Inverse folding.
């Protein structure tokens, strides 16, 4: 699962990506976070629960969950018709699972906005319009093919035709497909098309250094819009975060305190992006490591075990599970067992965010 960072030119997109992929906080000390390609990187998802677990269970290392990010080529108006790097931009978005759109919410005479004015909602509208136009082209092509097949009596093709028409009608009203509310059966028929406006969105309001709390009218406009379309919003100052990311631990803490932040805004952004992707964490805890593992919301215990090793899923017997609250209250796994608070869960158990687990398996 990966998120793509998009935005118009000169909104701070690449500054933010570089800050994220160069951030090496305490959480990353035992994990090789790095830039994979010039435009790809993996970053830690800071999780205070790891610190709580490791305060009760002595361990050699602590490993957080990770998030893969892609810095997608900049977009200009007309991308859906091939303007600028439009085709490359759209093809890269098809490959990611969620979109993080950076919108500029700061004034700076030295950094000229491509539109000649600072209007974050206009930025959002430009990109959303290009994605919708691209989806219309994709669906119109798909409709022609599906209708030809449906004429032969193919039931799957007939179902596809109905869903495609429903999507095209929604897009014709200038509404992204993520707001259509398609059910699982309908999504199945159009899954292969890689529709861009079906992907979940997180808006990243890039603010000025004198607006670190994101209180400006520009940011509020983004929040209001995001509420209307059921999307998330995080405000960050990409320029400041880039400076913080380059500092060592002690200097980082000092700088955060000086600007009134309890943690880098990048930490908040990573967690929100993780949630936007529909992901959650469970933990394993022992002498060798305390580790966060990533699973989709709704994953079963065998599927979660399979994230560690495919043999764990294939030979799954049961999971032993306890909560962070249990650990904080009773102090150790031994006392949790003695108190009868260690739960035994079977193959049908749906993992909960924050579960601490042992998996028993036999292959």
């Amino acid at each position: 699962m990966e998120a793509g960072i998009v935005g118009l030119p000169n909104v701070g997109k690449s500054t933010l990506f570089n800050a994220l992929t160069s951030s090496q906080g305490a959480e990353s000390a035992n994990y090789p976070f790095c830039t994979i390609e010039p435009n790809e990187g993996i970053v830690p998802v800071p999780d205070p629960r790891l610190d709580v677990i490791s305060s009760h269970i002595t361990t050699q290392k602590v490993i957080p969950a990770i998030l893969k990010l892609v810095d997608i080529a900049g977009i200009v108006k007309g991308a859906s018709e091939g303007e600028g790097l439009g085709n490359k931009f759209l093809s890269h978005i098809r490959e990611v699972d969620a979109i993080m759109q950076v919108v500029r919410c700061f004034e700076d005479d030295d950094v000229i906005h491509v539109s000649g004015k600072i209007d974050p909602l206009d930025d959002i509208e430009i990109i959303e319009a290009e994605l919708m136009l691209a989806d219309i082209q994709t669906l119109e092509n798909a409709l022609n093919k599906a209708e030809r097949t449906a004429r032969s009596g193919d039931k799957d093709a007939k179902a596809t035709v109905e869903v495609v028409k429903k999507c095209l009608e929604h897009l014709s009203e200038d509404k992204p497909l993520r707001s259509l509310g398609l059910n699982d059966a309908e999504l199945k028929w159009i899954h292969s098309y890689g529709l861009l406006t079906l992907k979940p969105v997180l808006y990243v309001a890039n603010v000025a250094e004198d607006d670190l709390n994101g209180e400006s009218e520009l940011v509020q406009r983004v929040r209001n819009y995001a509420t209307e379309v059921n999307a998330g919003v995080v405000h960050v100052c990409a320029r400041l975060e880039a400076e913080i990311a380059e500092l060592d631990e002690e200097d980082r803490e000092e700088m955060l305190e000086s600007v009134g932040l309890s943690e880098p805004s990048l930490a908040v952004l990573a967690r929100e992006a993780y949630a936007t992707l529909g992901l959650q964490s469970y933990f394993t805890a022992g002498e060798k490591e305390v580790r966060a593992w990533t699973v989709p919301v709704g994953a079963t215990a065998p599927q979660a075990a399979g994230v560690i090793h495919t043999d764990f899923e294939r030979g799954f017997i049961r999971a032993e599970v306890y909560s962070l609250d249990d650990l904080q209250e009773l102090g150790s796994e031994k006392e949790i067992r003695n108190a009868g608070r260690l739960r035994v869960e079977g193959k049908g158990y749906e993992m909960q965010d924050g579960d601490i687990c042992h998996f028993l398996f036999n292959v």
About this structure: The radius of gyration is 23 Å. The chain has 14 helices and 13 strands. The longest helix spans residues 120-150.
